Amino acid sequence: MSFTQLNPTVPVYVIGKGPGYAVGVIDYGQEHNLIWVTAINETGEIWCAPNPKVRMDSNWTMGRPKSKAATEDDALRKVEKAGDAAC
Question: Does the global pTM surpass 0.90?
Answer without folding.
Answer: no
